[in-house]
Each structure stands twice: as structure tokens, then as C-alpha cells.
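Risk mitigation, structural track. In case the binding assays with zinc ion fail to produce interpretable data, a predicted complex structure has been prepared as a fallback.
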Amino acid sequence: MKLPILVYHKIDRIPPGSRYPKNYVTPEQFEAQLAFLARRGYASITFADYLAYRRGERLLPPRAIIITFDDGYRSNRTIALPLLRQYGFGATIFLVTAQLGKTNAWDRDELQEPLLDAADIRSMQAEGRGGGGGIDFGSHTATHARLTRLGSVDALRELRSSREQLGALLGKPVTVVCYPYGDYNRATLQLARDAGYEAGVIIRRRMNSDATDPLELRRIPITCLTSPGRFAWDLFRLRWFHGS
Ligand SMILES: [Zn+2]
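Fallback model:
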């Protein structure tokens, strides 16, 4: 089974002066992408569904997909969520736990935008139960740290404290981590395992096969430069032409 996982950051208009416009996808682009996925019969699943499948405990729909958002911008709730609901898709949002309700302070040279706060997160979790539009959350570490540049004690603290804080907020164990900047190495994977994560996500333009390490799940980046043709072509060619 081939599983595509998409990664977005912000669904919003690109504000003038943005240093990283590729972190934006416009609402129109996002809606067209969701409409395409719906037309092609894609069904969003959760990481819990996928991990259960990998353990042999359940089957997945033939066109399963996971939609993810990094950093936890408030616009995920105000702009992306209504569109997800409209098309019956759920998503997973990776949160920077020390920054909840603050801004993307780790991007010192980028415009600062509001991040989801604890109340947003709790209500999104409560609203989405059962069916399309459900939102799950994972860890994007405590401070959006570049994990490979930290010593193992500090890296483990980033991974563990964010998992604990988020677990307490959500009232359930957090199983998935997103390595900031997609930056990781062998040691990072071991630390993620030690911190209690069952899955980790990276950025790589590939799908996931039954042999992919669950701590190294590949995600296809979608940006404001992703044309409708490119979006459709990636989902086709990565399924059929890239075996591993
Ligand atoms: Zn990030």
C-alpha cells in the first residue's frame, strides 16, 4: 500500500514582505487541491489509522491520504479547517508547544503570525470527532529547535517535554513528531523513539510503502508554486514509478 502524506504550512494570501512565500498556499489553490482529491476518491486517515495498518490491525481505504500542517498557525483554524470540512477531509497539525498562542518566533527574519492557542486546540479536537474534518495534533518540538544541532540531552528534552505538554492538553498520548526544518539523523530517530513517539515525519517527495520506517515517513511539500498539474502528476507518478 502506498500512502501519500502532504505537508502545508499556511493557507492564506501571501502578505507583502514575506521572506518565505513558499510556506503559503492560497485558499483558492487549497480548495482546488481538496476538490481534486475528493473527485479522485481520496479519503483522509489519521496517523493512528496508519500505524494500526502497519501493525496488521486494520485495513485502509484504497486511496488513503494524510494531510498535515506544520507550525500550527491560527489560520489553519480560520481558513483551512472550513475548507477541509467542506470536502470531508481531516488533517494533522504539528504544534510548537512553547509557542502556543504566540507567534513563529523561531523564524526571526519572517513576518510574525499568530499561532493556535490551547483553547483553539481543545475546541478543534472536540469539534472534529467522528468523520471528515477531524483534526489531530502532533509535536513539532517545544521551541522548533534544529534537533541535529543540539546535544542528545537537549534534543531529548525538546522531544519529551513537547510530547508531555501536548499529551496533557489533549488528554491522550501523542504518537507523532515532526522534526523542525525536516532536519534529522540516525541519532534523532533513536531519541524520538526514546521520547515515546511511534511515528515521525520528514520532507521528501515520495510516498510511503509498507517498508518505510514509521519514524521517517515522507511528506510531499505543497507550496504556492505547486500548479494543479504538478499536484495531480506527483500523486500519480509517485504511486506508480517510485517503488521504494
Ligand atoms: Zn516548522
